[in-house]
Amino acid sequence: MSNLCQVCNKRFSTVHVTEIRGDEKFELHVCDYCAQKEGIITAAPAPTTAPPIAKKPDKGGSTPKKAKILSGKEPPSIENLLEGISGEHPYAELPCPKCGMTFEQFNKRGRLGCAHDYDHFQIQLEPILHRIHQHIEHVGKVPKRIEPNIAIDRELRGLRKDLDEAIKGERFEEAAQLRDKIKGLEQDRDKTKLPADAGSEEKA
Amino acid sequence: MAFDIDKLPADKPGEWLKGTGPESDIVVSTRIRLARNVKGYPFLHSMTEKQQEEVNSLLEKAFKAIDRNRSAANPIKGKLAFCELKDAGSLDRKFLAERHLISQEHAAGKNSRSVAFSSDERFSIMVNEEDHIRLQHILSGLRLAEAYEAVDKVDDEIEKVVEYSYHPTYGYLTACPTNVGTGLRASVMLHLPSLAVSKHIEKVFHSAKKMNLAVRGLYGENTQAHGDFYQISNHVTLGESEASCIRKLSEIVPLIVKFERDTRKMLIDENKMKFEDRIYRSLGMLRSARIVTSEEAMSHLSNLRVGVFTGLLGGIDIKTINQLFVISQPAHLQRLSGGELCEEDRDSIRAQFLREKLESN
Questions:
Q1: Number of Cα atoms under 13 Å in the Cβ half of residue B225
Q2: Least Cα separation, residue B173 to chain A (angstroms)
Q3: Cβ within 8 Å, pair B240-A136
Q4: Which of A204, B77, B328, B351 has the most crowded Cβ, counting Cβ within 10 A?
Q5: Interface contact flag, A111 B178, Cβ < 8 Å
Q6: H-assigned helices in chain B
Q7: According to the model, what pLDDT value does residue A20 have?
Q8: pLDDT tens for each residue of B333-361
Q9: Which of B165, B212, B241 sits opposite A139 (nearest CB)?
Q10: What CA–CA distance (Å, rounded) separates A122 from A3?
């Protein structure tokens, strides 16, 4: 799927902006570089080099639409955020295979249909989540049932990083020990793995 | 089922207005709420009637199991009552909402739903409100960390018997994306009459917004600040840990409390007569009026509260005032009078209760 920046038409868009002016709705999808350059976002320090150009060819470039950021610092209501996200998006019409909800229905109701919606509508939801919470990833409590695996995964990530560094530093004895430790943890994790994984299975 | 609601005393405040706990002259109560959904079922509004009943039934069994098998870690004291709201009358449901055990939406809803609450009214668990589970813990005064610790333990207890809907990236999944992640709403109920009358309350709203905190009225979302009660809460639930949220509120609230106390002093210093007059006019009104609406009662009782805490109003106990706040509410009033009443009758009976309790000795 190509979601190219509407300003440069070269890089993938990662900043999504919506504005409502009277009866009209405007959308803007830009890459980080253009967002900074156009003054759309100022939070991060301005990039010193432009990020790499997307390899996919431009498909008959669309006219870039400029829009201002929605003003107002009210904790956004879901209704405000949903306005303006039009049905132009390729997945907008596809309903969730588990609960049958379409994004347009979510648009109207402000409530999702099932847990799977978070995956099915991921692309449309992330800008909304970002607008509400300024983040798109959970940090915080993990259910006790899942906790052991998450803790092991975190440790494994750390150990694999250490292993890479040990190999680079030609500390092969250390590397061998780390490799054994990693194998042991992987075996532990597979033993405690839950039959159903989080968040994806639903009754119809 | 109404049997359990009947056990709640209509003439005494619940935990939320008990008046004990730190800073309770201004911080009326602390509330921690967690939103959770049961894995394997759609979210509430996409559930069929049958699925709602299944979840209701599943959770009733779960809570009864928790009630029976009290582990040492379970902080719920007192029995857990379970109430099917479809079976409860309109007055009973409004009564529960007035006691802050359920939300106004839950009281007014039509679907298969219920609430479990502890006899000390500190814990309540709404079933099938906006999410399958809304777990709530209220403590009198400013006690954020303590309240969170307790609700965290109850959450763990529920999780032993119910599998939660959870996503490795988005955390605890909720029907509305505004709650996804921690599902946590931590709030404090503050009594801010001097900030309200001096219009400095606008500064509080402004600062709160800057810090991603929401300010709401007495009964929560979309409600008025009757009696000058304001609820301040977090509104970010994704990307911020529970500990960080609690810490942020714990830092902000004392500043607002100080602001209210300083404003009271300032108003008294500027014009003590005017400040006292407001208090005593309210006292006079409540001692004499024949018709008092619930908004009027809240407003005047708010002035009496300030009077007691600033020492300008003698001879009246804060317990009496808190009690009057509670019994002035429409459903409480009707409970105490023995049945449903029209608005006119409520207003005159309210006036009567107020006169009786505030009679000069």
A1: 18
A2: 6
A3: no
A4: B328
A5: no
A6: 2-6, 49-68, 90-98, 104-108, 144-161, 193-197, 201-210, 242-270, 272-288, 294-310, 318-327, 330-337, 343-357
A7: 73
A8: 999 998 899 999 999 999 999 999 998 75
A9: B241
A10: 14
Q: Which of A133, A144, A152, A202 to mutate to test the interface with B (most CBs of B within 10 A)?
A: A133
Residues of A whose CB is below 8 A from B41: 114, 202-203
- Give the pLDDT band (50/70/90) at residue A193: low
Chain B hits for A137, Cβ within 8 Å: 169-170, 238-239
The residue among A98, A120, A129, A132 with the most chain B CBs within 10 A of its CB, best to mutate, is A132
The C-alpha of B56 sits at a distance from chain A's nearest C-alpha, in angstroms, of 16
Q: Please state whether A26 falls in left (phi above 0), alpha (psi between -120 and 50) or beta.
A: beta
- SS3 of residue A36 by DSSP: helix
Question: What are the backbone angles phi and psi of residue A129, rounded to the nearest 5°?
Answer: -60, -40
Which residue in chain B is spatially nearest to A127 when comparing CA positions? B177
The Cα of A178 is separated from the nearest Cα of chain B by a number of Å equal to: 26
The pLDDT tens digits for A82-130 are 554 444 455 557 899 999 999 999 989 999 999 999 999 998 999 999 9
Question: What is the complex's ipTM, to 2 decimals?
Answer: 0.88
Element at A126 (helix H, strand E): helix A122-133
The 8-class DSSP code of residue B236 comes to -
Give yes or no for residue B331 having a pLDDT over 90. Answer: yes
Query: Nearest C-alpha of chain B: how many angstroms from A59?
Result: 32
Alpha-carbon gap: B248 to the closest alpha carbon of chain A (Å): 15
Q: pLDDT tens for residues B54-94? A: 999 999 999 988 888 777 778 888 788 889 998 889 999 99
pLDDT in tens, B279-320: 999 999 999 999 999 999 999 999 999 999 999 999 999 989
| Residue A49, pLDDT above cutoff 70 | no
Say if residues B108 and B118 touch (Cβ distance below 8 Å). Answer: no
Contact assignment for A138 to B182 by CB distance below 8 Å: yes
Q: How far is CA A134 from the centre of its chain?
A: 12
**CB–CB contact B167 A138 (8 Å):** yes
Two structure tokens written together for B48: 């069929």
Q: What percent of chain B has pLDDT over 90?
A: 70
The phi-psi region of residue B35 (left if phi > 0; otherwise alpha if psi is between -120 and 50; otherwise beta) is beta
Pair of tokens at residue B81? 């009552």
